[in-house]
Write a structure and sequence with these properties.
five-stranded mixed β-sheet; elongated
């Protein structure tokens, strides 16, 4: 976490953005959030200063997490049935002469109301003396899924970012382990592993200056946990390299402090903070975005924005639609025998008012059909704030554009549309962007069932609910704007 000596201008791209790009709801105010961890059905993240946030659903966040020691930029990880916290004992920067110390400590639970809630004594695992080219703050931890070894990175824009090995049983530094320089002029680093590569994510730019902060998250990768970490154009992170992962988005300024959560096969989320949310008094806020892996590199994905879309099946390229009789448009253009000397003029699109009177008034089945973007193929997707949320997102209603006819799950695992949206659980939908960039659509609840099923395209014309399989395109969808 770097203290600013110079100011920089942050470009504001747009004055009106969907709420889907904002930080989490509630009171998600935090700086330098740790990787989010789950404990006993709740989610926790810790920030600079000693406090942190708690959420019961991963969408509504409020204060209440407890971490002693103060200091800056903690990280958290679950190892076995315990939780290891690392934090920088100083706040970094020239004011303390870049003298730093990183501590670790354990707890059996993160719930401050539990009788088992008690942190162990701290253990120092890294230092900087104020003279060397390193600043020992901003720790990030990774438990290597291949080897089971525990690694901690640390450092700020002042000099090198370094990696050391910790003992996953004690949280102490492995005896005799020497730190290794792996990057320069960056901070808030953390390692993660994916598909045979170790990725080093870190912040470039400046922080702690509100709307004038220029933080952004970059990445390099290596086949070895100690580097060298090289970006997509061959630059070493020891030479200032790094491929962009997340940058300022409109009125959300300066993303930093990457954390990775793998929710299930194909569904991954990154946690971060924005230095300033201009719609919330310029406060630093927690945000959770999808992770998309593109050409072997992680990038920040997009939560679905409120809007009207074609919902396209990845399996076939057909669109989700009402199962109704096709309503023809008046003959216009095309065909044989037309006089090509006739004046050219636009042909009006088919509108909802042209066809809605021909639709049944009760429930209508859903279908997957060829795409022409007719009224029965246009879907408006709107977040429903009062319905709560899930990890990183709000629940949505999906209705035929211009109507309240809503997509709904049935007790027998099918999908229909009902005449009016009532807000019941089977009419609410979770929409997660997948790691390949497509989306998974899942009902909040199936009547009389605890199964987690998703919308799938079964055959060429039939949508239904079924188990999600990342290796199969049946459960993947794209949202195409008109």
């Amino acid at each position: 976490m770097k203290r600013i000596n110079i100011l920089s201008l942050c470009t504001l791209l747009s004055m009106i953005l969907s709420s889907s790009l904002s930080g989490q709801v509630g009171k998600p105010f935090i700086h330098d959030p740790s990787t989010i961890v789950e404990c006993e059905g709740k989610y926790y993240t810790f920030g600079t200063g000693g406090g942190g946030l708690i959420s019961e659903d991963g969408w509504n966040w409020n204060g209440g997490a407890v971490r002693p020691g103060g200091g800056a930029a903690p990280d958290a990880i679950k190892i076995g049935n315990r939780y290891l916290i690392a934090y920088g004992a100083t706040g970094g920067g020239a004011a303390v002469g870049h003298r730093g110390k990183i501590y670790t400590m354990w707890n059996k639970t993160l719930d401050p109301n539990s009788p088992d809630f008690k942190y162990t004594d701290t253990v120092a695992v890294a230092y900087s003396d104020g003279y060397e080219d390193c600043d020992a703050i901003d720790p990030g931890m990774m438990l290597d899924p291949i080897t089971g070894r525990l690694w901690l990175t640390y450092g700020t824009y002042y000099g090198f970012t370094r990696v050391v090995e910790l003992d996953p049983k004690t949280g102490k530094r492995v005896v005799g382990n020497k730190s290794v320089d792996i990057a320069i002029v960056c901070e808030a680093s953390i390692l993660t592993y994916h598909d045979g590569w170790y990725y080093l994510l870190a912040n470039h730019g400046t922080c702690c200056d509100g709307a004038n902060s220029t933080y952004n998250i970059v990445v390099g990768r290596s086949k070895k946990v100690t580097g060298p970490f090289i970006d997509n154009v061959g630059r070493s992170m020891l030479e200032g390299g790094g491929k962009m992962v997340a940058a300022t988005r409109g009125r959300l300024i300066g993303p930093g402090h990457f954390g990775r959560n793998i929710l299930s096969d194909g569904v991954e989320k990154m946690s971060l903070h924005y230095e300033a949310d201009l719609d919330q008094s310029g406060r630093s806020v927690l945000a959770i975005l999808p992770i998309v892996w593109k050409d072997g590199w992680p990038i920040a994905g997009e939560n679905i924005k409120e809007g009207t879309y074609e919902i396209e099946s990845v399996r076939r390229g057909y669109g989700l639609e009402l199962d109704i009789d096709f309503a023809r448009m008046a003959r216009a253009g095309g065909g044989f025998g037309r006089n090509n000397d006739e004046p050219i003029k636009p042909v009006a699109s088919q509108e909802l008012a042209d066809v809605i009177q021909t639709w049944p008034t009760g429930n209508i089945n859903a279908r997957v059909g060829d795409y022409m973007f007719r009224p029965h193929q246009k879907w408006t997707v709107v977040p429903v704030p009062e319905a709560g949320g899930y990890f990183g997102g709000a629940y949505y209603k999906i209705v035929i554009a211009g109507t309240e006819r809503a997509l709904a799950a049935t007790a027998d695992g099918e999908v229909i549309t009902v005449p009016t949206f009532s807000g019941t659980s089977e009419q609410l939908w979770r929409i997660d962007q997948l790691t390949d960039g497509s989306y998974r659509i899942m009902p909040k609840e199936i009547p009389n069932s605890k199964e987690e099923l998703v919308l799938i395209s079964f055959g060429d014309t039939r949508p239904t609910l079924g188990k999600f399989d990342m290796k199969n395109d049946n459960g993947k969808w794209n949202f195409r704007a008109p």
